[in-house]
Amino acid sequence: SSPAATAVTLLWGEPANHGDPITHYVIEVGDKTVTTPGPETEYTLNDLQPETLYRIRIQAMNSVGPGGFSGIHKVTTRPLPPAPPTLELVKASYNSLKIKWGDGRNLDMLTYSLQMEFTNPHNGTREFYQVYSGTNQNYKVVRLEENTEYRLRICASNEAGVGPYSAVAHLSTTKAPPPPLKAPRVTESAEGSHIVEWCSVRCPGEDSILYRLQVLQAGKDQDYYVAYTGGETSYALTGLEPHTGYYVRVCGVRVCGDGETMAGAYSSPALFNTPKPAP
């Protein structure tokens, strides 16, 4: 039959026994011999070397003695399937993992099968499912949960067959920052202060959220300064210069259970002008 990389199964017809049953066969493989356990005309040679030419001939045995050898049959074993590459994390976000397993050239034109472990919805067991198959040497797994460890493995295949899977890689997503806020709204109070208001946002899990309000005076060569940090969704700005434009923007700050803080993206700035001073 068709040889494998390290084994070949031999099949042959039973020769004439001249009245005395055949008890077993002697198989000559190069300079080695193998004795079959019985008269069966099928035998698998194991522990062969890949990509190696073997010259094989067979001899029948009975109680009278050995018969003549068959003609030489030449068999070349196939190459081994490719070894698995090593998975490497390129970038992790709160909902994706970008992974690579080569330099991107794939000169041997291998096909890769990347698998990730998920829970089987039918029986609740953890099983590996294919998330990518192809010749690329990188892939971005998306739609993942934040702050979660995932188990992945990969194998390569070519004309020689499918190789073994790699060791399981344990890769984790990051925590998600707060979502961006819409631009705040500014109104002037009767007391002369300016009330900045913004919509609230929520964080995953039970983490709390703070807000950071920044102010920038228009026309000044300076950076935004922090006017307020806290859990409220409004703040009264006082002490501003009259007849002056100001930009305000706000972001959410996630306060994690371990004390870590993560600031989200700032909103678009809102521009407002303070009134002229009273005459």
TrEMBL record:
<feature type="domain" description="Fibronectin type-III">
    <location>
        <begin position="180"/>
        <end position="277"/>
    </location>
</feature>
<dbReference type="InterPro" id="IPR003961">
    <property type="entry name" value="FN3_dom"/>
</dbReference>
<protein>
    <submittedName>
        <fullName>Fibronectin type-III domain-containing protein 3A-like protein</fullName>
    </submittedName>
</protein>
<dbReference type="InterPro" id="IPR013783">
    <property type="entry name" value="Ig-like_fold"/>
</dbReference>
<dbReference type="InterPro" id="IPR050617">
    <property type="entry name" value="E3_ligase_FN3/SPRY"/>
</dbReference>
<dbReference type="InterPro" id="IPR036116">
    <property type="entry name" value="FN3_sf"/>
</dbReference>
<feature type="domain" description="Fibronectin type-III">
    <location>
        <begin position="1"/>
        <end position="80"/>
    </location>
</feature>
<feature type="domain" description="Fibronectin type-III">
    <location>
        <begin position="81"/>
        <end position="177"/>
    </location>
</feature>
<dbReference type="Pfam" id="PF00041">
    <property type="entry name" value="fn3"/>
</dbReference>
